[in-house]
Amino acid sequence: MVNAIVLLKVKRDKVNSIASDLTDMKGISEVYSVAGKYDLAVMVRVKDNDDLADIVTNRMLKLDGITDSETLIAFRVYSKHDLESMFSLT
Q1: CA distances for 8 relative to 26, 37, 39, 77, 81, angstroms
Q2: Where are the alpha helices (DSSP H) in the chain?
Q3: Distances (CA, A) of 35 to 7, 40, 88
Q4: What would the 3-class secondary structure string for the chain be?
Q5: Which fold has domain 2-86?
Q6: Which of 17, 49, 68, 87 shows a CA-CA span of 20 to 30 A to 11?
Q7: Nearest Cα to 8, choosing from 49, 60, 58?
Q8: Which residues lie below 8 Å from residue 41, measured CB to CB, with a gap of 6+?
Q9: Using one digit for the tens of pLDDT, what is the confidence trace for 43-81?
Q10: What is the pLDDT of residues 8-50, one digit of tens each?
């Protein structure tokens, strides 16, 4: 499994529509509206690097309104949330 965070700069009037479009894409687990240098932080979880490349270069960056991106590939994922959900009895 490949986990990545894609940071996006987006035209001001497109933030909400792009965030909505991204949440509908297979492989994208969360989209956060954030403050700072970037407008959106996108959490991607896919099978392999080919799937990551497809999401970022073929689907995500073709959305009108994205002006810049930076992709951070995770070496390891440390998530208390993920561990708790694996062992949850509910």
Answers
A1: 18, 9, 6, 21, 24
A2: 15-23, 49-53, 80-86
A3: 11, 8, 33
A4: CEEEEEEEEECHHHHHHHHHHHHCCCCEEEEEECCCCCCEEEEEEECCHHHHHHHHHHHHHHCCCEEEEEEEECCCCCCHHHHHHHCCCC
A5: Alpha-Beta Plaits (3.30.70)
A6: 49
A7: 60
A8: 5, 6, 7, 8, 31, 32, 34
A9: 999 999 999 999 999 999 889 999 999 999 999 888 766
A10: 999 999 999 999 999 999 999 999 999 999 999 999 999 999 9
* Token pair listed for 76: 């390891």
* Sequence ranges of the domains in the chain: 2-86
Please identify which residue in the block is written with the tokens 């951070």. Answer: 72
Q: At residue 15, what is the residue type?
A: V
CB 67 within 8 A of CB 55: no
